[in-house]
């Protein structure tokens, strides 16, 4: 692959770019296939695409702005640079496009947002004793997932049926550890719906074998399990083991009831994913039915923002490459048995580059994958069902989205007007401080983009000058603002991208904030349009003074006082009063409350750590590592106080003398505490 770069716009004030200012000369763009990316003035990649002819595709972006798709027009006027990489084959283009989208998360690319958070059944194969539990959230390596299911109760109902056949652990880590310490299983262990590995009724290998049988059954290997139970039931009956035969009969009934809940939709036992779309000019909904062994094992939906005119063929190509690329990347070593790419993918239309897409999918799976449009029979009927689900999901999404999008747009517009901002505050950051009478002083910084929380950008601060600050939130806020924007200046100063080819003056450079080694944005590389502090005039003036001292002039500051929800601006004697029904005030309240929640959570964590460690402070021979080892093993000082000398001495890194010192210190020097047999001293 061969990289090339076009011109770069010179933008220092954050205004929209004229695409002609960075348009590359037509003759410099190759006609070869390749992958291209647009970047904004700060170096953040905002769009990634691929083309059979880079020249033809890129020239289309620099046509008359009035004739462009609204979001394409917004993208090219937001960008300040375009780069491209020439590739040799269509498969290389697919792979590079997928890698860049995953690496840069471009804001203008098609984004797949779950239209609801579907629960799945997770099996933690990466643990010594794997656990079965209901889960919502991002996929993790080493964990097997079954579903998604429409409702959490459907998962629990399936579990309840199957646990009598596969008595695997379903408890949390805390419950598992507690019952191991007390030496008694939980209720499920007594009623034979858990094999009780916590108390050693089965070994780790035996428990893993149970879990693997459970996973095989949900993966579609049902006939083998049913036949095995039927054979064992017959043998038990012949041997006059009637109680065992009755138990196997009940197990067999439970398996059959679980199978009845998953109707056969494809009689040939096919493993396939069925994909359907419903769309308009701006958005589209995707629905996928996962069919394994001829039965529907899960259903999932997404909603897509279209950035440029996109037909169904292009939607199919983008969805298949992004979805299965991510599923393959998430498949850990423990999940090898659950193939993330099925043998068949049934789609409404074949994309123009279906052959390249099939070859790429075949490489991911390790065996042939077919991309097909169903024409007749069961597969066509199922595809029509999936299409009806997509249309229904799209209708419901538009009803919800209309109110949400309108409210967020109104909120940003109100803030721009009422606070006198040059532009709508698309990125808002908020600082809040939490402490108890000046102790354990911490602060939070939360980020909202386009009116929505961006949790990956949240930051926590331990106030270094907490003692000097005393009870003053003003000093703490000033410290956080100073540290946050010092980092911003340090990460962007000296990291410059030339505004054109050849030698350019230092003032004609654009700070990128991109780490040259990793190619990823640095943590504090992007400043907010609006900085909100939790407080009134003193807090706002302190934050503004810090920004002025650092020379940061393009960040607006305001404060939201809790008492009357007044909005304060720097150097103003009177607050701005927003209507109680104002969408702008509601957004500021949500940002402030989220910062408060995040700060309180961190403060409680710091305080609990201090409280648990405080009783061990000053014990001779106990450094931070040993204190951490004790708390990790026993869980609390109360349980440590109840432990015997031999139990403590048995921990790695502890001897008997150290154990005696710990026990003596925890019991106030009045004897050694519990005996080695665990009986309390009288």
UniProtKB/TrEMBL annotation:
Belongs to the UvrC family. InterPro entries: GIY-YIG_endonuc (IPR000305), GIY-YIG_endonuc_sf (IPR035901), GIY-YIG_UvrC_Cho (IPR047296), Hlx-hairpin-Hlx_DNA-bd_motif (IPR003583), RuvA_2-like (IPR010994), UVR_dom (IPR001943), UVR_dom_sf (IPR036876), UvrABC_protein_C (IPR050066). Signal peptide: none annotated. This is UvrABC system protein C. PROSITE patterns: GIY_YIG, UVR, UVRC. It comes from Pseudonocardia kongjuensis. Interacts with UvrB in an incision complex. The UvrABC repair system catalyzes the recognition and processing of DNA lesions. UvrC both incises the 5' and 3' sides of the lesion. The N-terminal half is responsible for the 3' incision and the C-terminal half is responsible for the 5' incision. Keywords: Coiled coil, Cytoplasm, DNA damage, DNA excision, DNA repair, Excision nuclease, SOS response. Residues 31-110 form the GIY-YIG domain. Residues 495-522 are annotated as: Disordered. Residues 219-246 form a coiled coil. CDD domains: GIY-YIG_UvrC_Cho.
């Amino acid at each position: 692959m061969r990289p090339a770069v076009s011109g770069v716009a010179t933008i220092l004030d954050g205004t929209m770019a004229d695409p002609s200012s960075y348009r590359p000369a037509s003759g410099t763009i190759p006609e070869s296939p390749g992958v291209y990316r647009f970047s904004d003035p700060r170096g953040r990649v905002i769009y990634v695409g691929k083309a059979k002819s880079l020249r033809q595709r890129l020239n289309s972006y620099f046509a008359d702005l009035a004739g462009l798709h609204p979001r394409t027009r917004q993208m090219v006027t937001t960008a300040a640079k375009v780069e491209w990489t020439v590739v040799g084959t269509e498969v290389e283009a697919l792979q590079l496009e997928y890698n860049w989208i995953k690496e840069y998360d471009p804001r203008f690319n098609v984004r797949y947002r779950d239209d609801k958070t579907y629960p799945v059944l997770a099996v933690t194969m990466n643990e010594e004793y794997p656990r079965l539990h209901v889960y919502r959230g991002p996929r993790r390596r080493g964990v097997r997932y079954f579903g998604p299911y429409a409702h959490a109760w459907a998962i629990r109902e399936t579990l309840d049926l199957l646990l009598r056949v596969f008595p695997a652990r379903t408890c949390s880590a805390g419950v598992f550890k507690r019952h191991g310490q007390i030496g008694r299983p939980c209720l499920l262990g007594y009623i034979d719906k858990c094999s009780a590995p916590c108390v050693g009724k089965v070994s780790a290998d035996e428990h893993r074998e149970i879990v693997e049988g459970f996973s095989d059954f949900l993966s579609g290997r049902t006939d083998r399990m049913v036949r095995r139970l039927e054979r064992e039931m017959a043998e038990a009956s012949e041997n006059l083991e009637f109680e065992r035969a009755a138990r196997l009969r009940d197990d067999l009934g439970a398996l059959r009831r679980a199978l009845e809940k998953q109707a056969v939709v494809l009689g040939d036992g096919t493993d396939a994913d069925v994909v359907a779309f419903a769309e308009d000019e701006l958005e589209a909904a995707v629905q996928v039915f996962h069919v394994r062994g001829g039965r529907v094992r899960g259903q999932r939906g997404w909603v897509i923002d279209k950035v440029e005119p996109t037909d169904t063929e292009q939607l199919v190509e983008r969805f298949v490459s992004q979805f299965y690329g991510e599923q393959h990347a998430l498949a850990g070593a423990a999940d090898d048995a659950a193939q993330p790419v099925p043998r068949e993918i049934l789609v409404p239309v074949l994309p123009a580059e279906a052959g390249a897409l099939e070859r790429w999918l075949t490489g991911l799976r390790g065996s042939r994958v077919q991309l097909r449009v169903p024409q007749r029979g069961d597969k066509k009927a199922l595809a029509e069902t999936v299409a009806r689900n997509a249309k229904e999901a799209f209708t419901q999404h538009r009803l919800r989205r209309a109110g949400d999008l309108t409210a967020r747009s109104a909120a940003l517009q109100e803030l721009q007007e009422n606070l006198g901002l040059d532009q709508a505050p698309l990125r808002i950051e908020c600082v809040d401080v939490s402490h108890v009478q000046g102790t354990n002083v911490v602060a939070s910084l939360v980020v909202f983009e386009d009116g929505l929380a961006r949790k990956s950008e949240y930051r926590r601060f331990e106030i270094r000058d907490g003692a000097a600050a005393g009870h003053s939130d003003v000093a703490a806020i000033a410290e956080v603002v100073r540290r946050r924007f010092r980092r911003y200046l340090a990460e962007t100063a000296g990291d410059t991208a030339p505004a054109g080819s050849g030698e350019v003056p230092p003032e004609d450079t654009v700070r990128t904030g991109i780490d040259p080694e990793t190619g990823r944005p640095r943590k504090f590389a992007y400043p907010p349009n609006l900085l909100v502090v939790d407080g009134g005039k003193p807090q706002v003036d302190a934050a503004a003074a810090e920004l002025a001292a650092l020379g940061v002039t393009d960040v607006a500051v305001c404060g939201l006082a809790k008492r009357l929800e007044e909005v304060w601006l720097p150097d103003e004697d009177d607050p701005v009063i927003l209507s109680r029904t104002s969408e702008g005030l509601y957004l500021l309240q949500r940002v402030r409350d989220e910062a408060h929640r995040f700060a309180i959570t961190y403060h409680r964590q710091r305080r609990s750590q201090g409280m648990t460690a405080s009783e061990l402070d000053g014990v001779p021979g106990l450094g931070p590592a040993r204190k951490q080892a004790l708390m990790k093993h026993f869980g609390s000082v109360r349980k440590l106080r109840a432990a015997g000398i031999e139990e403590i001495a048995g921990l790695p890194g502890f001897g008997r003398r150290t154990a005696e010192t710990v026990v003596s210190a925890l019991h106030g020097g009045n004897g050694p505490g519990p005996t080695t047999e665990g009986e309390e001293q009288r």
